[in-house]
Design goal:
three-stranded parallel β-sheet, alpha/beta, 2 domains, 3 helices, elongated, 3 strands
Length: 140
């Protein structure tokens, strides 16, 4: 009986293995897939931009099969994911969880531009970080 080597999937990750996003979200996913698929499939993570140091290139790396998976930040590729900016509008969602649920449902429904070329494993929205304005904003 001949055994084939496991299928290796390349995961392009733009920062180090010590970052919070890797430790809290990516590592548990990768470990679960690698443990459950032992001998069949293996995800190999390429850290710190090893495949490409340009974060905005992540969608193209996945689209042209240079990487099988990657962390894609839609705001850095507005020409591809133009209407994803709606997820960044302040005050529409109670919290990042609600925003993330809306985001994935919009992608699943095919209502957001640019996602049809990808199999989206997860879509997440972070908490609010800043608000930009042309006029000064007074604070109390």
């Amino acid at each position: 009986m001949a055994l084939a080597e496991p299928i290796e999937l390349k995961f392009s990750f733009f920062t180090s293995d010590r970052s919070n996003i890797y430790q809290a979200a990516i590592k548990p996913f990768v470990d679960a897939v690698n443990n459950e698929g032992k001998g069949l499939i293996e995800i190999k993570v390429y850290f710190s931009g090893a495949i490409s140091t340009v974060l905005a290139e992540q969608p193209q790396l996945v689209a042209n099969d240079t990487a099988d998976m990657g962390i894609i930040v839609p705001a850095l590729s507005p020409e591809r994911f133009g209407d994803s900016a709606v997820m960044e509008l302040p005050g529409l969602y109670r919290d990042p969880r609600e925003a993330s649920l809306v985001f994935i449902r919009l992608i699943e429904a095919g209502t957001l531009e640019g996602y049809g070329d990808f199999f989206v494993i997860g879509a997440f929205v972070s908490g609010p970080e800043d608000v930009n304005s042309r006029k000064p904003i007074a604070t109390n």
